[in-house]
Design brief:
The protein contains 11 helices and 13 strands. The chain is 41% helix and 23% strand. It is an alpha+beta fold. A hairpin with a 4-residue loop joins strand 7 (186-191) and strand 8. It has helices at residues 2-13, 93-104, 129-144, 152-165, 174-181, 221-240, 253-259, 266-290, 294-310, 317-327, 355-370; strands at residues 20-29, 41-42, 44-57, 62-67, 76-79, 113-119, 186-191, 196-201, 207-217, 332-338, 343-351, 375-379, 386-388. It has a domain at 2-201 and 383-388: Ribosomal Protein S5, domain 2, CATH 3.30.230.10. A 6-stranded mixed beta sheet has the order 5-4-6-3-1-13, sandwiched between helices. A 4-stranded antiparallel beta sheet has the order 10-11-9-12. It has a 3-stranded antiparallel beta sheet with strand order 2-7-8, sandwiched between helices. Helix 2 (93-104) packs across helix 3 (129-144) and helix 6 crosses helix 8. The structure holds alpha-D-galactopyranose.
Length: 389
Amino acid sequence: MQKELMEKFVEVYGEGGEIREYFAPGRVNLIGEHTDYNGGHVFPCALTLGTYGLARKRDDRKLRFYSVNFSRLGVLESSLDDLIPSDQAGWTNYPKGVMWAFEKRGIKLEHGVDFLIYGNIPNGSGLSSSASLEVLTGLMLKDMFGVEELSMQDLALIGQYSENNFNGMNCGIMDQFASAMGKKDCAIFLDTSTLDYEYAPVKLKDARIVITNSKVKHSLVGSAYNDRRNECETALKELQKEVDIKTLGDLSEEEFEAHMSAITSDICRKRAKHAVYENQRAVKAVNALKADNVEEFGKLMNASHVSLRDDYEVSCEEIDILVDLAWQIPGVIGSRITGGGFGGCTVSIVKNDAVDHFIDTIGKQYKEKVGHEAEFYVVDIGDGAHVIA
Ligand code: GLA
């Protein structure tokens, strides 16, 4: 593929100069959902799927973008003097946002670039194709312009900053962190209140991670996400009148039960309950995994789904069908919605000898019930973003 992308680059932009290559992965979160903007823990891992980028420095301030996935759009031109979001800019709002965020941090970009990208993360699946593009762009700029002082963690923060302030999606740090900091065969146990993290080997014995794509993405994803954030903030403010906490992640389940009556709205109370319990579940799940108790890990995943469905209300009919079907299959250790929600994917841990049956059975029944096919990916955990030598 590298060779084909290099040929494509030359075809699109012409010969000459040094062309550098980069990769940034997508992610799947195993547990700890909607906790990253509540000061809680998350447990994502980087995939081997992601976004590739090839870039060459220019002498002027022009920016030229080309996506192999959106080849019909051709080359999209812009300039370092025009880093403002716009509808016409389409997908280039992501790399442009990162360039804007570099400048906001006081890092002057003196030269434009020719940038070609290709992604193999299924589009709109909730596996963080946009975060991978942000981290990819950050890495490309750091490498091309020799910005030594930026760590990979800084690139994650810059990606999140650009997503929040340039692209208007108020996401937490999980996706960009996983893309920048991932490690082969490990998930990242990240405390989002301090950014302390630990790599935990994902030893599933005789089981695999299977991602199922519902192939639905309900509209209003961004606004519903931002609503959830606001509801959690309202709950936090009310709780802070009674308890000395900085985030919902500071509370144990017992402390929450003792003070939850401080939250006046039923909706906000349910949202906060999810945030508190899900954070504790993530901690318990990582301990279970470390103790080689994959079954317990799976049970916590199932409980996570119930909470996201009933209390956080970010699931949808199609996703619930996938999870219900998965729960009925012998050899499924755990299954839940993953990512922001309102469609997208489920993540399941499935015994090796049940994977084929899982894909066949759920594939058929989902098609019957929903009317379109689901897609399945038996995935490996890969490394975080890197320069391709
Ligand atoms: C999206 C956001 C993340 C996180 C998840 C939910 O993927 O980008 O920051 O909040 O939803 O866990």
